[in-house]
Structures are given as structure tokens and as C-alpha cells.
Design brief:
With 502 residues, the chain is an alpha+beta fold. The chain folds into 2 domains: 142 residues, OB fold (Dihydrolipoamide Acetyltransferase, E2P), CATH 2.40.50.140; 264 residues, 2-Layer Sandwich (BirA Bifunctional Protein, domain 2). The protein is built from 14 helices and 19 strands. The strands form 4 sheets. Strands 7-11-12-19-18-17-16-15 form an 8-stranded mixed sheet, with helices on both faces.
Length: 502
């Protein structure tokens, strides 16, 4: 089948395809049937052929029914070869005029992108290509819009992310990522379920956007006559469940932060948060190591992954690195000695780091860590023991009250998780929240999102008594990026947020 589609405008192509649609209807063919009975996927058909070829006792050639999107057409006169693609891959179909009879004429009304089905024998051609020798052609869906020019090498990121369906059609890597991500989440769920955690659901619309230092999205509930926020974390609700006696809980769900968009950030992202009573951050470090190795084994069939062209084994123990020591080594800054805003800003200016966008001491330190320490953490590592000011929900260290028992996990220079030994002293927690709230609302605060928000319902709950508890937050999108060696978060989110194309 030859076509001049490449030389015709998109509007004309649409009209040409509509004319073909009309011709099919005039022939009594329904181009949009309700269903089709498929016996094998393309991969299953190919594997069936291999099984038959390896079994020397049989010479039978079984029939299969397959279906997929038309991807390529090679017209040889009385024989036409077409490739169809389904969720498992591609296979060639051999269409012979002497076998199909009048149905062979339907080929002229087919276009790249149409869905077709066929029943036929699985064979291998003289060139060694696994194929289905068709007994019939079933038109399952007539495509009215052509695929974009050079669709088979689709590289324009705006087209890929704005029209994900085209990306999935053209890009094998995109399909692999789309199918691997739910496998990663399922494996994570199995690990947590098998270790005694209970999966729960907490509100997405909340009266107080607390549990993290982030800018929330705000909306208004008409019936309740109140503003509500899209949650920025699930932490405070999950810890209230621990107070209620659910000693090991987790939630995998979307959280929303009204902040920047870049290679590692999307305004809505998927987070695992879990809490375990009677545990501390050392227990959580061990769990993270075990869980990520488990997920990698289940999904990738290996614990060795590529990071920056270097093979890294996820099953090995991750080093525990002191945040204070790492900052002294890589930045020459001791956060204990630079305990106020001006002295820390002066140190950052000496390093040539832009401190103009940060208005709080904790915000400055976070930027210093991001610029000087995190890029060095390529191999899986835990950065441990943060200053109290950066972690209002974490328990103070047993060794030094100026720091808290907190770690962040890094792979490939990117943070993938955050964990505390949770603060369960209600008096200390109230004091820290009240300080955060006073700083957030004070006239001196230039950015209220540098501080957490006071949640009175949570404070009342832990006054009822929360046992010693460890908590963990892990970014599913970033973990998927690491395991699949993808450079951008937009590669692992099917529909990422994009700027307006107006």
C-alpha cells in the first residue's frame, strides 16, 4: 500500500481517512466493532512458535487470533507484509491475496495507526521473521488522525509529554516505564503487607496544610463555608492512627505542593509514608535498604542498577554519613558554629552560593546541603542527624540535643526518602509548633512556607500518648527514576504538569 500522506496537510489527511471510513461502511463493514476475541498477544504468539520449533515431536502449526495497532505496511503486489503492535510488542502479519480473496482489497483502506485483528497460522518466513499467515482481516478501529511526522523517532519532549498517547505508541522505553512503575508500587505494597503494615487512606482535602515545609494549593468548600488545602503530606493523620493503636500503618498516594517544576519536581507526586510504633530511625534505615533491594529484585530481576554509567549494588548496606561531618568536608561549614542566619549566609557567600532566595536559617542550610553535599551521594547513602531547626517533627538525638534523629536517603545524588525518630513528647512538640507558627506569621517572615503549620487536632491526639515511633516518607516517582535509570521525573509520570502551550 503506497501513500502520499507525508506530502498532504493534516486537514487533508483527516479528510482522506474519513473517505476511507465511508468506503468501509459502504462495504457493510463496521469499523468500530464492540469487541474482538484475541487468543494470544504478539509476544505469546512468538513464544508459541519457539516452543513448536523446539519440540521435534510435532510438526503442527497452530492458529492464533491476534490484534493490535497497524505500524508498518510493505506492499509486494499479491503479498503484503504489515506489522502490528500490542502491549507486549510487535509481530509481522503475512497477507496473501490467494488466501484472503476479496478481503485483500481492504488493505487499500487501511492506514498506519488503525487497529486490526486476524486469525492465522504462526510461521517463520524464509528470512526468519516470526509471522502470522492471515486467514482474514478484521478492522477494529479506523484511526482518523495520522501519527505525527517522524513519529517512529519521536523526540520532541513537548509532544511526548503533552500527548502521552503518541509517546506510548512510538516510544518503546516509554511503554516499559509505564508498565514498570505499577510493578514497583505493587512490589512495595507486598513488602509492607508481608512485614505487618496496614494500608490506610487519609484525607486529601485538609483544613491545615501541615506535616512539611511547603506551599499548599488552596480551594474553597461551598457547603462548609471554609477554605481547604490539598495535602502536602500524610504524616500527621498517620501518626494519629498510631495513637489510636494501629501500630504499623502506611499510605501510598498523591501529595500536592504549589512549587517549582524541574527534572526532579512535579507539583503533584506520589509518596509512600509509613509509621512503625516502638521503632526508631535506625530501624527505618534497615527497612529502606531491605525494601528497595526487594523491589529491585522483583521488578528488575537484579539488585545491580546503572547510575551515571556506574553499576551500583542496591543490596549492599548503605553507609550512614553524618550531615555535620559531610558539610565540614565538602563545604567547610559547621552548622553548629554557624547557628544564626547572618553567619551562615556569610559562609555561603564565601563559597559563591546564591543565598538571596532563602529567608530562614533552615532554608539556607537546606540549599547549602543541596549544592555541596547531595551531588556527592551517587552511591546509595544515608545522610543522618540534622539540626533541630530543620525538623520540627523529629525527636532530639540521644547524644546531642542540638540535632535530631533524622535521615535522608540518596541515590544518584537525589533524595528519595526522609525519616525521623518521631517526636512523641507532646509538650516539646507543642513548643516547636508554636515557634514555627510564630515565625511563619511574623512580620519578619518573608516566606511563610519556610515553616511548618500548627495542627491543633494533631497536638491533642499525641497528648493522648503516642508510643516511640519511626516514620518514613519515600518519593515513588524518584525511586522509579532511579530503578529505570530515567533522567527526568516527567519520564515516569504519565501526565506531568506542563506549562501552558498558549
Amino acid at each position: 500500500m503506497k501513500t502520499n500522506e507525508e506530502n498532504v496537510s493534516s486537514n487533508s489527511l483527516f479528510e482522506v481517512r474519513k473517505q476511507k471510513l465511508d468506503r468501509l461502511k459502504q462495504k457493510g463493514i463496521n469499523p468500530y466493532p464492540h469487541n474482538y476475541k484475541r487468543s494470544h498477544t504478539t509476544l505469546e504468539a512468538i513464544n508459541l512458535l519457539k516452543e513448536i520449533e523446539s519440540d521435534k515431536k510435532t510438526s503442527s502449526k497452530p492458529d492464533v487470533s491476534i490484534a493490535g495497532r497497524l505500524m508498518n505496511v510493505r506492499d509486494m503486489g499479491k503479498v503484503t507484509f504489515v506489522d502490528i503492535q500490542d502491549i507486549s510488542g510487535q509481530i509481522q502479519i503475512l497477507l496473501r491475496k490467494n488466501l484472503l480473496g476479496s478481503e485483500y482489497e481492504l488493505i487499500s483502506d487501511l492506514d498506519i495507526g488503525d487497529w486490526i485483528g486476524t486469525n492465522g497460522t504462526v510461521i517463520r518466513t524464509r528470512r526468519g521473521e516470526p509471522s502470522v499467515e492471515a486467514n482474514n482481516i478484521a478492522i477494529l478501529c479506523k484511526s482518523l488522525r495520522p501519527l505525527p511526522e517522524k513519529w517512529h523517532g519521536l523526540t520532541d519532549t513537548e509532544i511526548r509529554f503533552r500527548h502521552r498517547h503518541l509517546d506510548l505508541i512510538a516510544n518503546n522505553q516509554a511503554r516499559k516505564a509505564a508498565m514498570a512503575r505499577p510493578q514497583i508500587v505493587s512490589s512495595m505494597r507486598r513488602y509492607l503487607d508481608n512485614t505487618g503494615f496496614i494500608e490506610v487512606e487519609t484525607p486529601v482535602l485538609v483544613p491545615v496544610a501541615a506535616g512539611a515545609m511547603a506551599r499548599p494549593f488552596v480551594t474553597h468548600h461551598n457547603q462548609l463555608h471554609r477554605d481547604l488545602y490539598m495535602r502536602i503530606a500524610t504524616e500527621l493523620y498517620l501518626k494519629r492512627l498510631v495513637v489510636g493503636g494501629l501500630e504499623k500503618v502506611y499510605e501510598i498516594g498523591k501529595v500536592f505542593r504549589n512549587e517549582g517544576v524541574d527534572l526532579n519536581h512535579n507539583p503533584e507526586f506520589t509518596m509512600l509514608e509509613c509509621y512503625e510504633a516502638l521503632a526508631d530511625y535506625n530501624d527505618m534505615m534497615e527497612m529502606v535498604e531491605n525494601m528497595i533491594a526487594h523491589i529491585s529484585r522483583e521488578v528488575l530481576k537484579t539488585t545491580i542498577i546503572a547510575i551515571n554509567e556506574e553499576d551500583v549494588d542496591l543490596s549492599k548496606p548503605w553507609p550512614r554519613l553524618s550531615l555535620r561531618e559531610q558539610l565540614i568536608e565538602h563545604a567547610g561549614v559547621d552548622f553548629i558554629e554557624c547557628g544564626d542566619l547572618d553567619s551562615l549566609k556569610a559562609q555561603m557567600n564565601k563559597l559563591g552560593l546564591d543565598s538571596s532566595q532563602q529567608t530562614s536559617w533552615s532554608g539556607l542550610l537546606d540549599k547549602l546541603i543541596s549544592d555541596t553535599v547531595e551531588p556527592k551521594l551517587v552511591r546509595p547513602s544515608f545522610l543522618i542527624d540534622y539540626p533541630v531547626e530543620m525538623s520540627p517533627l523529629a525527636k532530639k538525638s540521644r547524644i546531642d540535643e542540638r540535632i535530631v534523629e533524622r535521615f535522608e536517603g540518596f541515590i544518584g545524588g537525589m533524595e528519595i526518602c526522609n525519616s525521623f525518630t518521631e517526636l512523641n513528647d507532646p509538650i516539646d512538640q507543642r513548643e516547636r509548633f508554636e515557634y514555627q507558627e510564630s515565625m511563619r506569621t511574623s512580620s519578619e517572615s518573608k516566606n511563610e512556607d519556610d515553616y511548618d503549620r500548627l495542627d491543633e487536632d494533631f497536638l491533642v491526639a499525641i497528648e493522648q500518648g503516642m508510643p516511640p515511633t519511626a516514620g518514613l516518607g519515600m518519593g515513588i516517582d524518584r525511586l522509579t527514576m532511579i530503578l529505570l535509570n530515567e533522567p527526568s521525573i516527567r519520564e515516569v509520570i504519565l501526565f506531568p504538569q506542563l506549562r501552558s502551550n498558549q
